[in-house]
Specification:
By secondary structure, the chain is mainly beta. It is about 15% helix and about 35% strand. It has an 8-stranded antiparallel beta sheet with strand order 1-4-5-6-10-9-8-7. Strand 8 and strand 9 form a beta hairpin. The longest helix has 15 residues. The N and C termini lie far apart (about 40 Å).
């Protein structure tokens, strides 16, 4: 079974990971460390969020230890996850990839529009996440982190493990850098169970000043 895109950017769920102000090195040899119900810095520490209940930070599955990304999960990365992209700069990629690879995930550009960011996310799932089917459900404006150019992407994808998953990404390009919070979870039960937490985390998000 190939882990998917789990931004936590998780089953083929978006997965991200990095050090935060609460832990640093994941507590020794453990693949998981607890996230308490308090304000925590995520990714490269430029984004601060508060979870409504404890979650688990886990080592990178999909993004391969990109400093700007971090992954959380409640029931394991194959079932659910929340991923954070924090301050991804122009010319950088969501994943490490060799230039010789025949299929490439597009790099981020600071002038990308929401549809172009959505297309980049789809490419990430298809190229690296193993998605055999990816469907955009909706793409609409949504203010995020005080930015009027924010967006919300809702999507579904079928992975090579024959499990349908649902996702929601809320993001914005701020000062030329990409900020994104993404929920990706198994379509049956786990997505609906995690959605209230995701919305609370998005509502709590603030940039470090």
């Amino acid at each position: 079974m190939k882990p998917g895109l789990k931004f936590t950017l998780l089953g083929t769920s978006f997965a991200l990971a990095a050090c935060s102000s609460t832990g640093g090195d994941y507590g020794g040899f453990s693949d998981y460390s607890g996230v308490r119900v308090q304000r925590v810095s995520v990714g490269d520490d430029t984004l601060i969020v508060t979870a409504p209940r404890p979650w688990n930070r886990h080592r990178p599955i999909f993004f391969e230890d990109i400093r700007q990304v971090e992954d959380w999960t409640q029931n394991g990365p194959l079932l659910d996850g929340i991923s954070f992209v924090t301050g991804l700069k122009d010319g950088k990629s969501l994943i490490r990839q060799r230039r010789t690879r025949s299929q490439q995930v597009p790099i981020f550009r600071s002038n990308m529009t929401p549809p172009e960011v959505a297309s980049m996310i789809e490419s990430l799932y298809r190229v690296r996440g193993g998605a055999v089917d990816f469907r955009t459900v909706s793409l609409q404006p949504r203010p995020f982190l005080g930015a009027a150019n924010g967006f919300q992407l809702d999507y579904e994808h079928l992975d090579d493990d024959e499990l349908w998953r649902r996702g929601r990404a809320v993001g914005a390009v701020i000062n030329g850098q990409l900020y994104l919070i993404l929920l990706d979870a198994a379509k049956s039960h786990y997505y609906d169970a995690a959605l209230p937490d995701f919305e609370a985390i998005v509502a709590s998000a603030q940039l470090r000043r």
